[in-house]
Amino acid sequence: MSRDKNHAEIIARLINSLYENRSLEHIKGVLEQNAELEDENKKLKITNDQFDRKIAQYVTKYDAMKSKFDAKDSELDGLFKEKNDLVDRNSVLENQYQTATLELIDVREELRRLRRFAVKLNTLSDATESLLNGLFFKARNVAEQFFGVDFTEETLADLTSWETLRKHDAFDRNMIPIPLTNSVVGKQMRTAAFLAIIAVELSRYIFQPVYIVEDADELCEALSDLAKDATEQEAYVRSVLLAAFRGKQAQDALQRRLDRTADTIFSFVGGLFGSSAAKGALRMSLGDLCREASIEWQRIQSLKEKIEPSFRFFHSDDDEWKPLVFKTPGLVSPASPKAQLQNSPTPKAPNKRSAKQGQQQAAKPDEETAPDLADAVIWPSFWVASLLQYDDETALARGYVLCESQIATAKEEEKTQVVPGTRRAARRDVRRARTMSTGVVGQMGMRPSSSSGGEVGSLTGTGSAAAPPGGGGGGMGSGGSGATVAGVANANGGSFLSGKGGGGPKGG
Known about the structure:
Blueprint: H1 2-21, H2 24-115, H3 127-147, H4 153-156, H5 159-166, H6 170-173, H7 184-205, H8 217-229, H9 231-244, H10 247-269, H11 276-301, E1 307-310, E2 321-323, H12 337-342, H13 350-357, E3 373-379, E4 381-384, E5 399-403, H14 404-416, H15 420-444, E6 464-466, E7 481-482
Parallel strand pairs: 2-5, 6-7
Antiparallel strand pairs: 1-4, 3-5
Helix pairs in contact: 1-2, 3-7, 3-11, 7-10, 8-9, 10-11
């Protein structure tokens, strides 16, 4: 509007000027100037419109940039705040890190200190089974060395000592018949009985998880229960207890344990060995066995897995038990009672029985497939304690039991045996009867018959010793020899009291 007004004023002045000057050239110049001004005005208007559009665009861009800037500014404020938070948090973490580092140093030092209180446990290997089997072989060798041999008749007749042997705990579980003979079966059964005693006592004192206390039944039970539910915890507790059992005091305590074990075994069987030398040899061998067993078992104690002996018997479990066989030649296990009895002559003369029974032979059963395993555990099986509760697991080392055929054969021999003490008593009674008969005949003044028909001299008076059977008897008078007395009746059937019999030379 202002521009149009200005243009109108300019036109008015021009008209006035034209009117005043009345000059055509002047009018023409004014008109040209006016046209130029109009063109310039149009151009300026176009330029102005362009500027307006650009300004609007710049305003739009400015507004957009301002919005972005405001957003960035807000974001920057957030980042600054986050940075400050991170700085604060980093400071806290730095303090925590320094504290944790100091605590870690303390923990490591404590761990090193605690490790000194525990032994390093080893992993179970294939050698463990061989080690456990080796314990059995060593014990069996000792049992056969002392019980797989001929015993004297005095020893076989020592019923008190045999009864002492049978009082051992091993016989509370196992009914092991022990024929008191020197037959193969007799040697087998007494060897098995001795081995069973060894097994129980070694399990009681040597085959234990720790030796830190002498009587540790409750401790061992606690470790066994812990091994079933928390294997690693049991291993750590055991490693600490094993580490505590060191030094001279520990060695002295271990020696007392070994002595107690050997002495306990010896107390049940020592009475069967008469001489001091035999007793000493037995006690020394038991001591050596206990010491060797403890050395081997300490390797078992140092395993991560807790190993336990088991006397629990299941007849169908072939993976747990094997039939007991013997190393010594002649000490073999019978395949059946019939085979054994067929090879067992029944002696008629007591003084020949031992020699004949010692020649008995029997078939040896297959260790792996023997079908007649009996509930007579001689040597325990060994298990990883954490697996012992599962029936489908396999024993680490199988135990040894007697066969039904061995037990049946031994029972048959027990029924037919003649106790050596009875034979000696019978011979003693015969000798006493002879002495008494001779005294009675002499007092009666009668002459007994000679054993070969020789006439016996007078029984009155005193004389020398009796003549041998078959010779003439010298009279028991002055300077004479006495007649042979051979029981109640002589060889020709003549009675001492009848005086009958063939004649013989008299004594002077």
